[in-house]
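Project standup — Tuesday

K.O.: blocked on the structure for the chain from last sprint. Re-posting the sequence here as requested.
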Amino acid sequence: MNLDLKNVMGQIGNIWNGISLSHKFIMIMMTMGFIGGIIGVTQWARKPDFALLYGELGPKESGEIVDLLKEDNVPFQIRGNGSAIAVPSEKVHEMRLKLAGKGLPREESGYELLDKVGFGTSDFVQRVNYRRAVQGELAKTIRHLDYVEWAQVHLALPEGSLFVEDEKSATASVILKLKSRSAGVLRPEQVASIVHLVSAGVEGLKPENVTITDTRGNLLSRKELPSSMIGASND
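H.V.: unblocked you, prediction finished:
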């Protein structure tokens, strides 16, 4: 076995010695490039996929959120000159719940946001501002409920499609921080009232597409609502 190995190594050595210096250089560079490519692909595969946590943040809020992310050792990226923060996509929902428990972000813009739209604003910016305005108004309204201390609303409003089969449904996610006197529990009719409020306030939003979660991560809404509630929301 050892003799065969020595013969093989000797043959490889003879072949290598018979190759010109320029060819040796090319082979070495190709080998290094191949190894470098493998290392690069491995590093890229390990890199987390970042998704937007929050955008349109003020400097103070952005700093507070970054401090909390550092405390939890959560990787993050600062975008848009500090007005937007991204985290690994699998951490988005978890961190939104945790930040919501601390009342972050605090600033909510309502329809007054539309007053700031200047001449020549693109359709995309107008759609984003409209969505943010509706989210802010809904959150303000929900916070006026006696059993809610803090609320945040996230809307996903798909663009219209020429083909019915390609149309996507609007969805809403509501995060609530309940007041201590509610003992962290909402009655079914209280949950249904929030679902109705949100679905009635957004065109094309069905009650079954509204999800309500508290800051502890508990799902408060139900997939199936009473038919009377669904009918009322679609009126």
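K.O.: great, moving the ticket to review. The radius of gyration is 28 Å. Residues 21-46 form the longest helix (26 residues).
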